[in-house]
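Field: sequence (string)
Field: structure_tokens (string)

Example rows 1 and 2, in order.
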Amino acid sequence: MLSFTSSLTRGLHAKNTNAFWVIKLYYNAGGSNDFYGLSDANRNAQENSGHFYYGLVTDFGSISQSIDFFDFTSNISSMTIKIANVPNSINGGRFSDLLSTLNFGNRKWELFQCKQEVRPWDNDNNLLAEGIIAGDFTYNRNEVILQLLDKSGTIHKDLPTNVVTSSDAPKENLNKPIPMQYGDFHDNPNIGTI
């Protein structure tokens, strides 16, 4: 995970006040363009895209993913965002009211890096990340916590594996995958196998 020193972080906040994030949380059936836009402050993009972004995000969190090369396993990366759940903040109610009336679970999310003077904010050039909203929400009267999963699960491929079963193999290699070449490669007599 990328991290900055506290002095650099303070400097970025102080000198780069025109950059911000907006996030779209989609609901209803797949392929639908129904979404609610959120950001860290109320942001009105009515003149170009007709969208309003509610300033309810209190923490965009961080994106994390893990991989274990030796066991050939990985975890889908996720991002946790915290949303203020205060009365009369969105559509005359709390954000948790939207969760109970609209179907956000397993729907799309999109995160955009924006600058105040560059419009529209939510175009493909500004898209940073996208994925699926996890179906399990955590909330109380003050805050809603959403888990946002990336889309990598839709592009992951299972590689064929044969495991070591021979009694001649070292004990630590038993039931581990046999290394294999995968992908594009060719023989070059001058430099060996690539």
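Row 2 begins here:
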Amino acid sequence: LGSPDWDKTKTRVRGAVKEIAHELVELYAIRQNKEGYVYGPDTVWQKEFEEMFPFEETEDQELAIEATKKDMESTKIMDLICGDVGYGKTEVAIRAAFKAVQEGKQVVYLVPTTILAQQHYNTFAQRMKDFPVRVDLLCRFRSPKEQKKTIEDLKKGMVDIIIGTHRVLSEDVKFKGLGLLIIDE
């Protein structure tokens, strides 16, 4: 500390932080000038689906759910939902995905690992089982033949929610009506 190397490092870091801050301001300015798809109010199925949640929502979770729906029902491009492990972000994502599917839109849920993709697939499939929603998985746990079938069905609009790793970003993956992208980092 206090050495010339330390001063150089601090100066370099300050410059990098300023550059990142400038890029973020530019990005948010662009986002403010764009309009997203406007979803309608909750349907009877949405309310029924939400009532089937087997746990009691936390106050923070309820606020996040309402904020997400408000964003979906406006022209505003949606903001991020942040929270610690166990916060309930997956339930917020499930409800947003279900809302999008109610309007005939497809949903991509992008996750960083294959294990997490499988876990989210299981959760989504279980939660949606009583509704006409097709949830599918696209990751290395699926054979090339299964992946090919899923990709064909995505193009035709037969898959409502696709959960997967970076594989969902491949050039051969096309959608009939993508309406929501959820990124779980």
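free_text_note (row 2): Strands lie at 106-110, 135-138, 161-164, 178-183.
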